[in-house]
Task: structure prediction
Amino acid sequence: MTAKKERAWQRMLSGRRLDLLDPSPLDVEIEDIAHGLSRVARWNGQTTGHWAFSVAQHSLLVEDICGQFKPDLPLPWRLAALLHDAPEYVVGDLITPFKSAVGPDYKTLEKRLLTAVLLRFRLPGELPKGLAALIKRADRAAAFLEATQLAGFDPVEGRRLFGAAAPELVLDPLEPWPPEEAKRRFVARFVQLS
Result:
């Protein structure tokens, strides 16, 4: 008697079935990504405001910060910045301490999903090191801003954990958007960049 194989795919609203263990770029749709990310809360929802601060809104913030750090950044690389957390439309946004506790298997799964997303939108499956470093720097600056403006961290603790946000950034104060607005803005920016 053979053991029943466990289901390893997620059905999306588009009708696609994304295999989490072996994701195909052909099963990735921007509407599914935007829908999922607009409903995934950063900071496990532990933020101020009427709405959760979504991963979609965070992704837009990171892409904006990348553009401020490097104004001549080509549009495809800005698209890569927008999509940097795209795997979270399927696996959610695990806070960094939990990712560390889960270990390398989670990072492997997340990397496979990101590769499928990047390939789907005609980007290299592995980003150049300089671009990856820029996105990471922008991600940490966004985390500092989110932590200190929305998640109750004081600036000293925020700097210790995330580094200081670059003082040259020109950004409005953060205010969480409703999911439909986050989705709409994410898709609109995706269209502009692609």
